[in-house]
Design goal:
GO terms for molecular function: DNA binding; transposase activity. The protein is an alpha+beta fold and about 475 residues long. Among the domains are: about 10-130 and about 400-460, no CATH class; about 270-360, no CATH class. About 35% of the residues lie in helices and about 20% in strands. The chain has helices at about 40-55, 55-60, 75-85, 90-100, 115-125, 130-145, 150, 225-240, 255-265, 280-290, 370-375, 380-390, 405-425, 440-450, 455-460, and strands spanning about 30, 35, 160-170, 180, 190-200, 205-210, 245-250, 270-275, 295-300, 305-315, 325-340, 345-360. Strands 3, 4, 5, 6, 7, 8, 9, 10, 11 and 12 form a 10-stranded mixed sheet that branches. It has a two-stranded antiparallel sheet with strand order 1-2. β9 (about 295-300) and β10 (about 305-315) form a beta hairpin. α3 (about 75-85) packs across α13 and α8 runs parallel beside α9 (about 255-265).
Length: about 475
C-alpha cells in the first residue's frame, strides 16, 4: 500500500479558496484570448474549491469497483472520468486521446500511471453505484446549506422542474435495462430514458436527482415517466427534506397521485393542462368564456420583445375527485410583439399563445403573475439541463453499453454538471458579467491543465490519504 509523499503545502490547513476580488484582472479578453492571469488559473481554483467546499479528494478516495487484482485503482479512474465529463468528452476515443496527450497528467501523482480507455471501460462496468449516489447527495446537501435554492427562487419560492429525456437508442445493441419500442417497419428499438428533477428560476440551476426508467413494470410495458416522477418526488423528500416549495410540471404529469405526493412532501404544484376532456377543464372553458379577463399586465421576454398578458382564474374547484384539496385553474393568453425579416424588410408581428394551468396555491398565497412565471421557468430544464447535458456533456452518447456503466457515467456527468455550475454561478457571483461563454472557459481550462505549469495534485490528493 502506497501513500503520497508528505509535503507541507499539501496539508489541509493550507487549502484556501482564492480571493474572488483579486480575479477581476483575469476577466479581460484581447483578440479572443484572455490576458492577465488567464483562464489557466481557474482550473487550479476549481480544484481548490471542490476539495475545500465539497471534500472532493475524499470522494476520490471513497471510489470503489469490484475488479480483482486491479493495477490501476478506482480513485485514479474517478479523477480521470470526472474531469473527462467536466471537460465535455465526446466519446471514449476522445478520452483515450486526452489520456495519451497528457491532459490528466497533472491531476494524478507522477508515481502512478494513467489508465487506458479499456481499463476505464472495465472499471465502470464494476463501479460501486451506492457510494457514487451518496456523493451526489452530499453535494446537493452542501448546496442547500449554502442557501443555493433560496438564492435562485422566484418571488421567494424555491422551484423544481421535473421532466423526462431520452438518452440514446439502438437497434443492434441492448442490455437488461434497455427499454423497447416497435418501429413502423416492425423492428425493435432499444433505448434508455431518465427523469430529472432540477432547480429552475435562477442561481446555479443544479440537478437535485434523477431516476432511470425501468423496463417492463407490468402488463408487458415499460415504466412510464409519471411513475418515475412519483418515485422521484418521494426520494427528494427523504434525502434532502424540504428543498423545494413548488414543482412545475408538464401536462404529462397532470395526475392525482403526483399532486398528492407533492402535497405529502410539503410542496405545491403548478401543472400545465392540455386534456380538454377533464371535468375541471370543461368547467374552466365554460366559465372563462362567459366573462372578461381578471388580470392583465405587460412584460418583456429575454430578447426584449414586448408581451401583453391576459389572465383568468378560478379557485376552489373540486372537479378533480382524486385530489384531496380544491384546486385553482388559470388561463393565460400572451400577445408577443416581435420583429421578423420578410423580403429584406423588418416587419412587426404578434404571436398569440394560450396556456392552461392548475395549481394547489390559493389566490391569497401566490398571485397569478408569480404562477405564470413559475410555469414559464419550467422550460429551464429543457434549455439548461437537457441542452447542456446533450450538447456539451454528450449524455445522449452511449460510451459503454452496460447497465452499471451507463448509470455510473450519468452520475459522473451530473456531478460534473453540478459542480461546474455551482462554482461558476454560485461561488463566483460575478461570472455572468465576464461576457464569455462557459464552454470557452472549460476548453481553456482543459488546455491549461495540459500545458500549464500547475500543481493540481495538492488540491485533489490531500496529504496522508492512501491512493493504492
Amino acid at each position: 500500500m502506497h501513500s503520497l509523499p508528505q509535503e507541507p503545502d499539501m496539508m489541509e490547513d493550507h487549502l484556501r479558496i482564492p480571493n474572488k476580488k483579486k480575479r477581476k484582472k483575469s476577466n479581460k479578453k484581447k483578440n479572443g484570448k484572455w490576458v492577465g492571469d488567464k483562464v489557466g488559473r481557474e482550473i487550479e481554483d476549481f480544484a481548490c474549491y471542490a476539495t475545500k467546499i465539497h471534500d472532493f479528494s475524499r470522494m476520490a478516495h471513497q471510489a470503489k469497483d469490484s475488479r480483482k487484482r486491479a493495477q490501476i485503482k478506482a480513485p485514479i479512474i474517478f479523477i480521470v472520468v470526472f474531469f473527462g465529463a467536466f471537460f465535455s468528452m465526446v466519446s471514449m476515443a476522445q478520452l483515450d486521446h486526452w489520456l495519451k496527450s497528457k491532459v490528466f497528467a497533472r491531476f494524478i501523482p507522477s508515481r502512478f500511471r494513467l489508465p487506458s480507455h479499456d481499463t476505464v471501460r472495465r472499471a465502470l462496468q464494476k463501479w460501486d453505484l451506492d457510494i457514487q449516489r451518496q456523493q451526489h447527495q452530499e453535494i446537493v446537501i452542501c448546496y442547500k446549506e449554502q442557501k443555493g435554492p433560496k438564492k435562485g427562487s422566484i418571488d421567494g419560492l424555491r422551484v423544481t422542474a421535473i421532466d423526462g429525456v431520452e438518452l440514446f437508442h439502438s437497434t443492434a445493441y441492448k442490455c437488461k435495462d434497455c427499454l423497447t419500442r416497435e418501429k413502423r417497419d416492425g423492428s425493435t428499438e432499444y433505448y434508455h430514458s431518465i427523469v430529472v428533477a432540477q432547480q429552475v428560476g435562477g442561481g446555479a440551476n443544479i440537478i437535485y436527482d434523477w431516476e432511470m426508467r425501468k423496463p417492463r413494470d407490468g402488463q408487458d410495458k415499460d415504466e412510464g415517466e409519471s411513475t418515475v416522477a412519483l418515485r422521484l418526488i418521494k426520494s427528494l423528500k427523504e434525502k434532502y427534506g424540504k428543498i423545494t416549495d413548488v414543482y412545475t410540471l408538464d401536462a404529462l404529469y397532470a395526475k392525482a397521485p403526483i399532486i398528492e405526493a407533492a402535497l405529502a412532501a410539503g410542496s405545491h404544484v403548478v401543472i400545465r393542462m392540455k386534456d380538454k376532456r377533464m371535468r375541471i377543464m370543461q368547467r374552466g372553458h365554460k366559465e372563462f368564456s362567459e366573462r372578461s379577463y381578471d388580470h392583465f399586465w405587460e412584460e418583456n421576454d429575454r430578447r426584449g420583445n414586448s408581451i401583453y398578458v391576459q389572465a383568468w382564474e378560478q379557485e376552489g374547484l373540486t372537479d378533480w375527485d382524486q385530489v384531496s384539496i380544491p384546486l385553482r385553474l388559470i388561463k393565460i393568453i400572451r400577445h408577443t410583439t416581435k420583429t421578423i425579416i420578410e423580403g429584406n424588410e423588418k416587419v412587426q408581428v404578434t404571436d398569440i399563445t394560450e396556456q392552461w394551468l392548475v395549481t394547489t396555491y390559493t389566490k391569497t398565497e401566490v398571485k397569478v403573475q408569480t404562477i405564470a412565471r413559475i410555469a414559464c421557468e419550467r422550460w429551464e430544464i429543457e434549455n439548461v439541463a437537457f441542452r447542456n447535458l446533450k450538447t456539451f456533456n454528450h449524455i445522449d452518447h452511449c460510451f459503454v453499453h452496460h447497465p452499471v456503466a451507463i448509470e455510473a457515467l450519468i452520475n459522473f456527468q451530473v456531478m460534473a454538471f453540478n459542480l461546474k455550475r455551482m462554482y461558476f454561478y454560485h461561488h463566483l457571483s460575478n461570472f455572468r458579467s465576464w461576457d464569455i461563454q462557459l464552454r470557452e472557459v472549460i476548453n481553456e481550462m482543459r488546455e491549461a491543465a495540459r500545458w500549464g505549469k500547475l500543481n493540481l495534485c495538492r488540491w485533489l490528493w490531500k496529504w496522508g490519504l492512501c491512493v493504492l
